[in-house]
Amino acid sequence: MLRLRTMCGGLKLLGIRRTSTAPAASPNVRRLEYKPIKKVMVANRGEIAIRVFRACTELGIRTVAVYSEQDTGQMHRQKADEAYLIGRGLAPVQAYLHIPDIIKVAKENNVDAVHPGYGFLSERADFAQACQDAGVRFIGPSPEVVRKMGDKVEARAIAIAAGVPVVPGTNAPVTSLHEAQEFSNTYGFPIIFKAAYGGGGRGMRVVHSYEELEENYTRAYSEALAAFGNGALFVEKFIERPRHIEVQILGDQYGNILHLYERDCSIQRRHQKVVEIAPAAHLDPLLRTRLTSDSVKLAKQVGYENAGTVEFLVDKHGKHFFIEVNSRLQVEHTVTEEITDVDLVHAQIHVTEGRSLPDLGLRQENIRINGCAIQCRVTTEDPARSFQPDTGRIEVFRSGEGMGIRLDNASAFQGAVISPHYDSLLVKVIAHGKDHLTAATKMSRALAEFRVRGVKTNIPFLQNVLNNQQFLGGTVDTQFIDENPELFQLRPAQNRAQKLLYYLGHVMVNGPTTPIPVKADPSPTDPIVPVVPIGPPPAGFRDILLREGPEGFARAVRNHQGLLLMDTTFRDAHQSLLATRVRTHDLKKISPYVAHNFNKLFSIENWGGATFDVAMRFLYECPWRRLQELRELIPNIPFQMLLRGANAVGYTNYPDNVVFKFCEVAKENGMDVFRVFDSLNYLPNLLLGMEAVGSAGGVVEAAISYTGDVADPSRTKYSLQYYMDLAEELVRAGTHILCIKESRCRGPTLERGSGPRS
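The line above is the sequence of Pyruvate carboxylase; the predicted structure tokens follow.
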């Protein structure tokens, strides 16, 4: 049975190999075998990975994700049909740069083609070559073209050979500060350093005078080395106040190359694009023709295949200068898609399969500009603090939507954790309208609808850009942000709902902070800690535990004549009265006195239960440090804790090995008696906790929770016999001590030794 798929060129049979050819008029007609792609892996993460996955799903192609150890919970992993860990043990970014792991995943899982996305390995010729060597298709240009375009010096030489104007600059990377000084002597200032083996604004420094030369050379070299593994720089004459215009190109394997018009990326901060527009506003038609024809000419010069971008600077006189070629999909490809109605990712995949552009219905005469599109990059950066990246959990997320709005995102949802390890992009917002002003109005409305709480974003800054009259007039250049300081006059978010919810939660947990309606004055004196004798505290029950172990300790409890007391002051008492808010600092003050004067206590309950939650969330203390410090001050009295069975000290079931390890570490840090408790007397839950405590060498105190009149014969389910049977089960399971816990209040509990362990 044959599968049919609808494409731009009509219905194509995918179950049969066929031959695709370039148009008869093409001077370089080649006959290539059409090989459909059935499985695509994206060697990337986040938004661009999801963008490619969606395109593949639309084409009926199975998808594969890769993820680092830090990205285990990221959305791109969930969106793919298959997902595999790469870079185990490596730093977060290095995981996505580890070519052997990526190639191994591709080969082991029968991947037909790899899409590199943007960033990471997208412009690495060695990665494209590694894919080719492994028999996996690379969705992008050939390795040789990637290499040529990635080397800015060689790309510059190719542009010159193609007759494309370039900015005056060095023909090869400079190897010393002296060479940079010689260039500045010849061409004068300002000049700009650029990384020879990467882009994105990294390794890029503008120098206006001799005094700035050495410092900026050093910084640019360091940035390039850190970002691309190679600190090589080349030097160009810096064009002042230019527009940054780039042209989208698309080529196939038959020599067909076309352009999809231009984008204006002039709104930049530190050479990082902030807002992108297509087409460029108020661009002279003749200049547009020169830009697009030079882009196609340059692409043909190098034999370019697949999607790419040719970048130019346009000076105030309308002269254009070639900067570089990005041999990959750009972050801002979305605005081109909106105005041309061409899905660039679909086109990339089809070209890699062996389809020609005419096969796809893509001819230059058919590409038309339809309206205007604007893209804003919403990032988790705080513009009030020099765009410092913010991290944390998104508490509230509501996006702007509606007609003419497109959202490309990955981590934009309530509960998402924003990691410090990767790019701060949260969501790309794309607005499409009939003209520049209409698109700007839609974008402004969409940004106003966003509600993001929990992390800072650059939305207030973007709103100022969208409302700026110079921007609305379409007359911006690369100095726009630097020359408009009012863009940083940010309107603070009101955040009324979150503030109200926070207040209500605070009152519910901590109680009201309003003055009490009585005239009583607070105590004018601080509590006085009694004098503690010099020397070690007297022996206590813990000495028996250390000497004779848990069984000997339980035997000593049974043989003791009289009542033994467990003191709950250090935990359960102030949990009931003060929501467990007594600090370690205060507990430590009274601990030496307790050790010297209460050595006959059965135990001190000072840990477990809500201690962990409150110590970390409200007191900002380490609960482990509390245990260690109290143990040092009270060496003679057994410590006791509440263990919620398989829940340990949390509020959900944990894996068995987590509970076992927790008990082991608790015992090592000074815990002695573990009261294992389950409010429903669920035996499997209790048994897991008991086994974990016993394995750690602690004293097992199994608790029975009861309520009601157990002597009432009319109670047939939770009768006295039920509790007697449960007690027998716990004794048979090996508890050292049996605890009977009345569940209606936080009153005292009766604790007795249960006899020798069976």
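Note on the example: Residues 541-742 form a domain with the TIM Barrel fold (CATH 3.20.20.70). The longest strand covers residues 257-269.
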